[in-house]
Write a structure and sequence with these properties.
Blueprint: H1 5-24, H2 28-50, H3 54-58, H4 63-74, H5 80-90, H6 103-113, E1 122-127, E2 133-140, E3 149-150, H7 154-172, H8 179-190, H9 204-233, H10 238-243, H11 247-252
Parallel strand pairs: 1-3
Antiparallel strand pairs: 1-2
Helix pairs in contact: 1-2, 1-9, 4-5, 5-8, 7-8, 7-9
Length: 257
């Protein structure tokens, strides 16, 4: 029997944590092996999510589930604009910016009224200094805590990681990418040195190679920083770990940079 999307997501989370540890330990051989296994597992997840059963195709997919799909594809905290871009490029159904405005607040209210009653929550990424909600970013509660921490290098690392995930997904498509997918690829290429080819051409393989080259420079330092912040966050209550400390609350709890 094939693994369910939820089981594959848990496996993906475990593999990402092992990749980060291998990189932090300087074991590049193990890191390459784990990345290859991670990509295989992500392809299985893509297949499971992108080929739903007929009854599932007929139902209206809730907004939170559509955002969950996009964030799982990206694998990193993301702003609504990127989430909408990924949804438009790879998923069906209507999703508008206005539908995401109060989503995180709604998820926090749900968690506080009945903690851990849902399989996942759309939660916050947390700033490294005060463990406050990072402005405009959404994350998944099922991710390792360190992935939701935002240190000095994290925005760049997350951009490059998202570029890798999108290019790998594009290369797995049976058909030519549509206009929305091409726009998304151009968006990443514009922000990565040497991602474009001759005469400004943009292909997934070129963007992937350029993103990998820069990511290798930053990943170990960022991973160590995020792990340190995650250790501090573990001292907070469960709701604050997921949705962040407000400024007054952070001071009251003695949170320090």
């Amino acid at each position: 029997m094939s693994d369910s999307p939820d089981q594959l997501e848990r496996r993906i989370g475990e593999l990402r944590s092992r990749v980060r540890r291998a990189v932090a330990d300087g074991d590049r051989s193990l890191a390459r092996e784990l990345r290859a296994e991670l990509r295989r597992t992500e392809r299985l997840w893509d297949t499971a999510v992108m080929a739903p059963s007929a009854p599932e195709q007929a139902r209206v997919i809730p907004v939170r589930e559509q955002v969950h799909h996009a964030l799982n594809l990206l694998g990193v905290p993301a702003a609504p604009k990127l989430i909408l871009g990924v949804h438009e490029a790879f998923f069906s159904g209507e999703l508008a910016a206005g539908q995401l405005t109060s989503l995180r607040r709604d998820e926090e209210r749900s968690f506080r009224s009945g903690p851990h009653t849902r399989p996942y929550y759309l939660c916050a990424a947390l700033t490294a200094d005060l463990l406050a909600p990072a402005r405009g970013l959404l994350a998944l509660s099922t991710w390792p805590a360190a992935r939701r921490m935002i240190g000095p290098l994290s925005p760049r690392v997350d951009f490059l990681t998202a570029a890798l995930r999108v290019t790998e997904h594009l290369e797995q498509l049976d058909a030519e990418p549509g206009p929305a997918a091409r726009r998304l690829l151009w968006r990443f290429a514009a922000g990565i040195p040497r991602a474009t080819g001759p005469r400004g051409s943009v292909e997934p393989s070129g963007v992937r190679a350029a993103a990998h080259a820069e990511l290798d420079v930053h990943l170990a330092v960022d991973a160590a920083s995020r792990e340190e912040v995650a250790e501090r966050a573990a001292e907070l209550d469960p709701a604050t770990q997921l949705f962040g400390a407000r400024l007054q609350g952070a001071r009251a709890q003695g949170i320090r940079p």
